[in-house]
């Protein structure tokens, strides 16, 4: 099974650092970095906001827990957003490529 993991970070340098680390450690086959994400959220009972970058990580499901552990070790946020969804499908060629890269 395949998964996509979504992680927000506070700046481009951190986004690139986390993406590179996950790729080097073969926890991810691909990481997209999307800039100019405007986040509004509750923090300690108050409405807060931040301009962030969003990482979209393509991986296999059995690597998600390792991604979570690694990101918590290197992320600058006290409570980083790390959420994932399991994929029910996708291009067979693309999914095969993910498998090959994460062997």
Automatic annotation (TrEMBL):
It comes from the Archaea. One of its GO terms (molecular function) is copper ion binding. GO terms for biological process: response to metal ion. Belongs to the CutA family. PANTHER family: DIVALENT CATION TOLERANCE CUTA-RELATED, FI09726P. This is Divalent-cation tolerance protein CutA.
